[in-house]
Predict the structure.
Amino acid sequence: MSKVVPQKVAVLGAGPIGLEAALYAKACGLSVAVYDRGQIADHIRQWGHVRMFTPFGLNATPLGLKTLLREKPNRTLPASGDIVTGREFRDAYLVPLGESEPLLESLQQETSVLHVGRATKGFRLLVRTAAGQERIDTADIVLDCTGTFATPKWLGDADIPAVGELAARSQIATGLEEIAGERKAHYAGRSIALIGDSYSAATTICALATLAEEHPATWVFWITRGARGQPLPRVTNDPFKERDRLAVKANSLATRCDGNLEFHPQTVLDEVISHGPDKGFRIAGRSNGKPVSWEVERVIANVGYRPDTALRVDGPGYFTLGAKSRDSGFLLRDGFEQIKQTFAAITGNAQLDHYGKKAA
Ligand SMILES: Cc1cc2nc3c(=O)[nH]c(=O)nc-3n(C[C@H](O)[C@H](O)[C@H](O)COP(=O)(O)OP(=O)(O)OC[C@H]3O[C@@H](n4cnc5c(N)ncnc54)[C@H](O)[C@@H]3O)c2cc1C
Protein backbone atom coordinates (compact mmCIF):
# COMPACT_ATOMS: atom_id res chain seq x y z
CA MET A 1 0.00 0.00 0.00
CA SER A 2 1.48 3.39 -0.94
CA LYS A 3 2.00 6.00 1.77
CA VAL A 4 -0.61 8.79 2.03
CA VAL A 5 1.45 11.93 1.41
CA PRO A 6 0.38 14.91 3.51
CA GLN A 7 -0.50 17.97 1.49
CA LYS A 8 0.22 21.04 3.55
CA VAL A 9 3.59 21.89 5.04
CA ALA A 10 4.16 24.79 7.43
CA VAL A 11 7.76 25.99 7.50
CA LEU A 12 8.58 28.11 10.54
CA GLY A 13 11.44 30.49 9.73
CA ALA A 14 12.65 31.80 6.35
CA GLY A 15 16.35 31.44 7.08
CA PRO A 16 18.58 29.50 4.68
CA ILE A 17 17.20 26.15 5.87
CA GLY A 18 13.53 27.19 5.98
CA LEU A 19 13.76 28.59 2.44
CA GLU A 20 15.45 25.49 1.07
CA ALA A 21 12.96 23.23 2.88
CA ALA A 22 10.05 25.21 1.42
CA LEU A 23 11.53 25.04 -2.06
CA TYR A 24 12.07 21.31 -1.69
CA ALA A 25 8.50 20.83 -0.47
CA LYS A 26 7.25 22.63 -3.56
CA ALA A 27 9.47 20.47 -5.77
CA CYS A 28 7.87 17.41 -4.13
CA GLY A 29 4.45 18.75 -5.11
CA LEU A 30 3.34 19.78 -1.61
CA SER A 31 1.63 23.02 -0.67
CA VAL A 32 3.68 25.25 1.63
CA ALA A 33 3.31 28.20 3.96
CA VAL A 34 6.56 29.81 5.16
CA TYR A 35 6.45 32.20 8.10
CA ASP A 36 9.14 34.57 9.29
CA ARG A 37 8.69 36.94 12.16
CA GLY A 38 11.12 39.33 10.49
CA GLN A 39 12.35 39.70 6.95
CA ILE A 40 13.81 36.97 4.75
CA ALA A 41 16.81 35.43 6.56
CA ASP A 42 16.39 37.87 9.38
CA HIS A 43 19.05 36.39 11.64
CA ILE A 44 21.66 36.54 8.87
CA ARG A 45 20.60 40.13 8.21
CA GLN A 46 21.59 40.84 11.83
CA TRP A 47 25.13 39.50 11.34
CA GLY A 48 25.39 40.54 7.69
CA HIS A 49 28.79 42.26 8.13
CA VAL A 50 30.46 38.99 9.22
CA ARG A 51 32.43 37.00 6.66
CA MET A 52 31.23 33.40 6.40
CA PHE A 53 33.79 30.60 6.68
CA THR A 54 32.28 28.13 4.20
CA PRO A 55 32.48 28.97 0.49
CA PHE A 56 29.34 29.97 -1.38
CA GLY A 57 29.20 26.58 -3.13
CA LEU A 58 28.53 24.90 0.23
CA ASN A 59 25.88 27.44 1.22
CA ALA A 60 23.69 27.03 -1.85
CA THR A 61 21.92 23.96 -3.26
CA PRO A 62 21.46 22.67 -6.81
CA LEU A 63 17.70 23.27 -6.45
CA GLY A 64 18.18 26.84 -5.19
CA LEU A 65 20.64 27.70 -7.95
CA LYS A 66 18.44 26.11 -10.61
CA THR A 67 15.44 28.11 -9.37
CA LEU A 68 17.31 31.40 -9.51
CA LEU A 69 18.93 30.78 -12.89
CA ARG A 70 15.67 29.57 -14.44
CA GLU A 71 14.09 32.92 -13.59
CA LYS A 72 17.06 35.03 -14.64
CA PRO A 73 19.66 33.10 -16.65
CA ASN A 74 22.17 35.97 -16.62
CA ARG A 75 21.85 36.57 -12.88
CA THR A 76 25.18 37.30 -11.15
CA LEU A 77 25.89 34.87 -8.35
CA PRO A 78 29.06 34.43 -6.28
CA ALA A 79 31.44 31.77 -7.60
CA SER A 80 31.38 28.42 -5.86
CA GLY A 81 34.68 29.06 -4.03
CA ASP A 82 33.89 32.63 -2.97
CA ILE A 83 33.92 33.44 0.74
CA VAL A 84 31.18 36.03 1.10
CA THR A 85 29.74 38.01 4.00
CA GLY A 86 26.34 37.19 5.46
CA ARG A 87 24.96 40.27 3.73
CA GLU A 88 26.32 39.24 0.33
CA PHE A 89 24.94 35.72 0.78
CA ARG A 90 21.54 37.09 1.76
CA ASP A 91 21.36 39.68 -1.04
CA ALA A 92 22.63 37.42 -3.84
CA TYR A 93 20.92 34.17 -2.92
CA LEU A 94 18.45 34.11 -0.02
CA VAL A 95 16.36 37.19 -0.78
CA PRO A 96 15.97 36.30 -4.50
CA LEU A 97 15.03 32.75 -3.44
CA GLY A 98 12.35 34.04 -1.06
CA GLU A 99 11.01 36.23 -3.86
CA SER A 100 11.23 33.51 -6.52
CA GLU A 101 8.11 32.26 -8.25
CA PRO A 102 7.81 28.96 -6.29
CA LEU A 103 7.96 30.74 -2.93
CA LEU A 104 6.55 34.19 -3.55
CA GLU A 105 2.97 33.34 -2.63
CA SER A 106 3.93 30.99 0.18
CA LEU A 107 6.15 33.38 2.09
CA GLN A 108 4.68 35.48 4.89
CA GLN A 109 7.22 37.91 6.29
CA GLU A 110 6.70 39.75 9.58
CA THR A 111 4.42 36.96 10.70
CA SER A 112 5.36 35.17 13.93
CA VAL A 113 4.32 31.69 14.83
CA LEU A 114 3.44 31.96 18.50
CA HIS A 115 2.17 28.47 19.33
CA VAL A 116 1.81 25.10 17.64
CA GLY A 117 -0.49 22.33 18.86
CA ARG A 118 -1.51 18.91 17.63
CA ALA A 119 -5.12 18.79 16.41
CA THR A 120 -7.28 15.71 15.76
CA LYS A 121 -5.83 15.80 12.26
CA GLY A 122 -2.56 17.64 11.72
CA PHE A 123 -1.54 20.82 13.56
CA ARG A 124 -3.03 24.16 14.55
CA LEU A 125 -0.75 27.23 14.53
CA LEU A 126 -1.44 30.52 16.25
CA VAL A 127 0.20 33.20 14.10
CA ARG A 128 0.45 36.97 14.53
CA THR A 129 1.07 39.53 11.80
CA ALA A 130 3.14 42.69 12.20
CA ALA A 131 -0.14 44.62 12.48
CA GLY A 132 -0.94 42.55 15.58
CA GLN A 133 -3.67 40.46 13.97
CA GLU A 134 -3.86 36.88 15.19
CA ARG A 135 -5.34 33.88 13.39
CA ILE A 136 -5.22 30.09 13.35
CA ASP A 137 -3.59 28.30 10.41
CA THR A 138 -3.48 24.55 9.94
CA ALA A 139 -0.87 22.16 8.54
CA ASP A 140 -0.26 18.43 8.09
CA ILE A 141 3.48 18.74 8.64
CA VAL A 142 5.45 21.35 10.61
CA LEU A 143 9.13 22.04 9.94
CA ASP A 144 10.61 24.14 12.72
CA CYS A 145 13.51 26.06 11.15
CA THR A 146 13.48 28.98 13.58
CA GLY A 147 17.20 28.82 14.45
CA THR A 148 18.69 29.81 17.80
CA PHE A 149 20.12 33.27 17.19
CA ALA A 150 17.27 35.03 19.03
CA THR A 151 17.85 33.05 22.24
CA PRO A 152 21.40 33.53 23.51
CA LYS A 153 22.64 31.43 26.40
CA TRP A 154 22.88 33.01 29.86
CA LEU A 155 26.07 34.43 31.30
CA GLY A 156 25.80 32.88 34.76
CA ASP A 157 27.50 29.73 35.92
CA ALA A 158 25.60 26.45 35.22
CA ASP A 159 23.86 28.13 32.25
CA ILE A 160 21.42 30.10 34.37
CA PRO A 161 21.22 33.91 34.50
CA ALA A 162 23.76 35.64 36.75
CA VAL A 163 22.38 37.84 39.53
CA GLY A 164 21.12 41.04 37.88
CA GLU A 165 21.38 39.62 34.35
CA LEU A 166 17.63 39.39 33.76
CA ALA A 167 17.22 43.08 34.52
CA ALA A 168 20.36 44.04 32.57
CA ARG A 169 19.50 41.91 29.53
CA SER A 170 18.33 44.70 27.23
CA GLN A 171 21.63 46.56 27.77
CA ILE A 172 23.87 43.56 27.05
CA ALA A 173 24.88 43.00 23.42
CA THR A 174 24.33 39.35 22.52
CA GLY A 175 24.87 39.22 18.77
CA LEU A 176 27.75 40.16 16.51
CA GLU A 177 28.22 43.88 16.91
CA GLU A 178 29.39 45.78 13.83
CA ILE A 179 32.36 47.14 15.75
CA ALA A 180 34.26 48.41 12.72
CA GLY A 181 31.10 50.03 11.34
CA GLU A 182 27.89 51.44 12.70
CA ARG A 183 28.62 50.50 16.35
CA LYS A 184 32.13 51.94 16.41
CA ALA A 185 31.22 55.07 18.36
CA HIS A 186 29.46 52.91 20.97
CA TYR A 187 32.66 50.97 21.74
CA ALA A 188 35.59 53.26 20.88
CA GLY A 189 37.45 54.42 23.97
CA ARG A 190 35.25 52.36 26.33
CA SER A 191 35.97 49.60 28.84
CA ILE A 192 34.36 46.45 27.49
CA ALA A 193 33.80 42.98 28.91
CA LEU A 194 33.56 40.30 26.24
CA ILE A 195 32.35 36.97 27.59
CA GLY A 196 32.61 33.68 25.69
CA ASP A 197 34.90 31.49 23.64
CA SER A 198 32.67 30.81 20.63
CA TYR A 199 33.56 31.67 17.02
CA SER A 200 31.33 34.70 17.51
CA ALA A 201 33.54 35.73 20.46
CA ALA A 202 36.60 35.22 18.25
CA THR A 203 35.09 37.53 15.61
CA THR A 204 34.32 40.12 18.28
CA ILE A 205 37.75 40.01 19.97
CA CYS A 206 39.52 40.47 16.63
CA ALA A 207 37.34 43.51 15.84
CA LEU A 208 37.88 44.94 19.36
CA ALA A 209 41.66 44.51 19.09
CA THR A 210 41.67 46.55 15.87
CA LEU A 211 39.45 49.17 17.48
CA ALA A 212 41.80 49.40 20.49
CA GLU A 213 44.73 50.06 18.15
CA GLU A 214 42.86 52.99 16.61
CA HIS A 215 41.42 54.23 19.92
CA PRO A 216 43.96 53.56 22.69
CA ALA A 217 41.54 54.46 25.49
CA THR A 218 39.60 51.27 24.66
CA TRP A 219 40.17 48.53 27.24
CA VAL A 220 38.94 44.96 26.77
CA PHE A 221 38.46 42.22 29.37
CA TRP A 222 38.02 38.91 27.58
CA ILE A 223 36.44 36.45 30.00
CA THR A 224 36.12 32.72 29.24
CA ARG A 225 35.16 29.67 31.25
CA GLY A 226 37.65 27.39 29.54
CA ALA A 227 41.20 26.58 30.51
CA ARG A 228 44.19 28.89 30.20
CA GLY A 229 45.92 29.13 26.85
CA GLN A 230 44.05 28.73 23.62
CA PRO A 231 40.37 29.67 24.06
CA LEU A 232 39.33 28.62 20.54
CA PRO A 233 39.56 24.91 19.77
CA ARG A 234 41.23 24.29 16.43
CA VAL A 235 39.84 21.62 14.12
CA THR A 236 42.66 19.34 12.96
CA ASN A 237 43.31 20.07 9.26
CA ASP A 238 40.29 22.37 9.26
CA PRO A 239 38.89 22.33 5.71
CA PHE A 240 37.55 25.85 6.30
CA LYS A 241 40.63 28.09 6.25
CA GLU A 242 38.62 31.20 7.15
CA ARG A 243 37.46 29.52 10.39
CA ASP A 244 40.96 28.34 11.23
CA ARG A 245 42.43 31.78 10.56
CA LEU A 246 39.90 33.29 12.96
CA ALA A 247 40.73 30.76 15.69
CA VAL A 248 44.48 31.33 15.27
CA LYS A 249 44.11 35.11 15.43
CA ALA A 250 41.85 35.03 18.50
CA ASN A 251 44.12 32.53 20.29
CA SER A 252 47.14 34.67 19.55
CA LEU A 253 45.41 37.74 21.00
CA ALA A 254 44.63 35.74 24.17
CA THR A 255 48.21 34.50 24.50
CA ARG A 256 49.92 37.81 23.77
CA CYS A 257 47.53 39.86 25.87
CA ASP A 258 49.29 43.01 24.75
CA GLY A 259 47.72 46.26 23.69
CA ASN A 260 44.65 47.00 25.70
CA LEU A 261 43.46 43.45 26.17
CA GLU A 262 43.27 41.37 29.34
CA PHE A 263 42.44 37.68 29.00
CA HIS A 264 40.73 35.99 31.97
CA PRO A 265 40.26 32.24 31.42
CA GLN A 266 38.68 29.80 33.89
CA THR A 267 36.33 32.52 35.04
CA VAL A 268 32.64 32.12 35.80
CA LEU A 269 30.24 34.97 36.40
CA ASP A 270 27.86 35.25 39.36
CA GLU A 271 26.70 38.87 38.94
CA VAL A 272 26.03 41.20 36.01
CA ILE A 273 24.57 44.36 37.51
CA SER A 274 23.60 47.28 35.30
CA HIS A 275 23.95 50.77 36.81
CA GLY A 276 21.26 51.98 34.38
CA PRO A 277 21.07 52.62 30.65
CA ASP A 278 24.50 53.77 29.42
CA LYS A 279 25.79 53.99 33.00
CA GLY A 280 27.93 50.84 32.93
CA PHE A 281 27.98 47.51 34.75
CA ARG A 282 29.54 45.73 37.66
CA ILE A 283 30.38 42.15 36.78
CA ALA A 284 31.65 39.72 39.37
CA GLY A 285 32.46 36.05 39.66
CA ARG A 286 35.26 33.63 40.35
CA SER A 287 38.52 33.13 38.51
CA ASN A 288 40.20 29.85 39.42
CA GLY A 289 37.97 29.88 42.49
CA LYS A 290 39.09 33.37 43.63
CA PRO A 291 36.60 36.26 43.68
CA VAL A 292 37.01 38.80 40.86
CA SER A 293 35.03 41.86 39.79
CA TRP A 294 35.20 44.60 37.19
CA GLU A 295 33.46 47.90 36.47
CA VAL A 296 32.92 48.20 32.70
CA GLU A 297 30.98 50.44 30.35
CA ARG A 298 29.91 47.76 27.85
CA VAL A 299 29.14 44.04 28.04
CA ILE A 300 29.15 41.76 25.00
CA ALA A 301 27.92 38.20 25.61
CA ASN A 302 29.06 35.74 22.94
CA VAL A 303 28.45 32.56 24.91
CA GLY A 304 26.44 30.72 22.26
CA TYR A 305 22.74 30.24 21.61
CA ARG A 306 20.12 27.81 22.87
CA PRO A 307 16.99 26.49 21.17
CA ASP A 308 13.71 28.01 22.26
CA THR A 309 11.63 24.90 22.86
CA ALA A 310 8.33 26.76 23.34
CA LEU A 311 7.12 25.82 19.85
CA ARG A 312 8.04 22.15 20.00
CA VAL A 313 5.44 19.42 19.60
CA ASP A 314 6.57 15.85 20.21
CA GLY A 315 5.59 13.06 17.90
CA PRO A 316 5.06 12.42 14.19
CA GLY A 317 4.80 15.22 11.66
CA TYR A 318 6.87 17.77 13.61
CA PHE A 319 10.50 18.10 12.53
CA THR A 320 13.21 20.42 13.84
CA LEU A 321 15.72 21.31 11.13
CA GLY A 322 18.67 23.66 10.77
CA ALA A 323 20.68 25.39 13.50
CA LYS A 324 17.96 24.64 16.07
CA SER A 325 18.51 20.90 15.65
CA ARG A 326 22.13 21.00 16.87
CA ASP A 327 23.73 22.16 20.09
CA SER A 328 26.69 23.66 18.21
CA GLY A 329 28.77 23.30 15.08
CA PHE A 330 25.83 23.36 12.66
CA LEU A 331 26.74 23.85 8.99
CA LEU A 332 24.33 24.69 6.18
CA ARG A 333 25.40 21.61 4.25
CA ASP A 334 24.21 19.47 7.22
CA GLY A 335 20.85 21.21 7.02
CA PHE A 336 20.52 20.53 3.28
CA GLU A 337 21.07 16.83 3.96
CA GLN A 338 18.47 16.95 6.77
CA ILE A 339 15.95 18.40 4.31
CA LYS A 340 16.41 15.54 1.83
CA GLN A 341 16.09 12.95 4.58
CA THR A 342 13.02 14.62 6.07
CA PHE A 343 11.20 14.73 2.76
CA ALA A 344 12.16 11.13 2.07
CA ALA A 345 10.37 10.29 5.34
CA ILE A 346 7.39 12.55 4.57
CA THR A 347 6.83 11.31 1.02
CA GLY A 348 7.80 7.70 1.65
CA ASN A 349 10.42 7.83 -1.14
CA ALA A 350 13.60 6.54 0.43
CA GLN A 351 15.77 8.03 -2.33
CA LEU A 352 15.15 11.62 -3.38
CA ASP A 353 17.61 13.55 -5.51
CA HIS A 354 18.72 17.19 -5.09
CA TYR A 355 15.61 18.33 -6.93
CA GLY A 356 13.02 16.51 -4.83
CA LYS A 357 12.53 13.81 -7.48
CA LYS A 358 12.75 10.06 -7.00
CA ALA A 359 16.39 9.10 -7.54
CA ALA A 360 16.83 6.76 -10.50
C1 LIG B 1 27.98 34.67 12.70
C2 LIG B 1 27.65 33.31 12.12
C3 LIG B 1 28.36 32.86 11.03
C4 LIG B 1 28.06 31.62 10.47
N1 LIG B 1 28.76 31.20 9.38
C5 LIG B 1 28.46 30.02 8.82
C6 LIG B 1 29.17 29.56 7.65
O1 LIG B 1 30.08 30.22 7.14
N2 LIG B 1 28.81 28.37 7.10
C7 LIG B 1 27.81 27.56 7.64
O2 LIG B 1 27.54 26.49 7.08
N3 LIG B 1 27.16 27.95 8.76
C8 LIG B 1 27.46 29.14 9.36
N4 LIG B 1 26.78 29.54 10.49
C9 LIG B 1 25.87 28.59 11.17
C10 LIG B 1 24.46 28.44 10.51
O3 LIG B 1 24.57 27.95 9.21
C11 LIG B 1 23.67 29.74 10.52
O4 LIG B 1 23.36 30.04 11.87
C12 LIG B 1 22.36 29.70 9.72
O5 LIG B 1 21.80 30.98 9.72
C13 LIG B 1 21.34 28.71 10.26
O6 LIG B 1 20.24 28.70 9.40
P1 LIG B 1 18.75 28.34 9.90
O7 LIG B 1 17.87 28.51 8.69
O8 LIG B 1 18.75 27.03 10.59
O9 LIG B 1 18.37 29.43 11.01
P2 LIG B 1 18.38 31.03 10.98
O10 LIG B 1 19.26 31.56 9.93
O11 LIG B 1 18.67 31.40 12.39
O12 LIG B 1 16.91 31.42 10.57
C14 LIG B 1 15.79 31.28 11.44
C15 LIG B 1 14.67 32.20 10.95
O13 LIG B 1 13.50 31.92 11.73
C16 LIG B 1 12.82 33.13 12.03
N5 LIG B 1 12.01 32.90 13.25
C17 LIG B 1 12.46 32.68 14.50
N6 LIG B 1 11.43 32.46 15.33
C18 LIG B 1 10.30 32.55 14.59
C19 LIG B 1 8.90 32.40 14.89
N7 LIG B 1 8.46 32.11 16.12
N8 LIG B 1 7.99 32.59 13.87
C20 LIG B 1 8.42 32.88 12.62
N9 LIG B 1 9.75 33.02 12.29
C21 LIG B 1 10.66 32.84 13.26
C22 LIG B 1 13.95 34.15 12.20
O14 LIG B 1 13.49 35.47 11.99
C23 LIG B 1 14.97 33.69 11.12
O15 LIG B 1 14.78 34.35 9.88
C24 LIG B 1 27.05 30.79 11.06
C25 LIG B 1 26.36 31.25 12.17
C26 LIG B 1 26.63 32.51 12.70
C27 LIG B 1 25.86 32.98 13.91
Q: What stands out?
A: The domain at 157-301 is CATH 3.50.50.60 (FAD/NAD(P)-binding domain). The chain is about 30% helix and 20% strand. The longest strand covers residues 111-118.
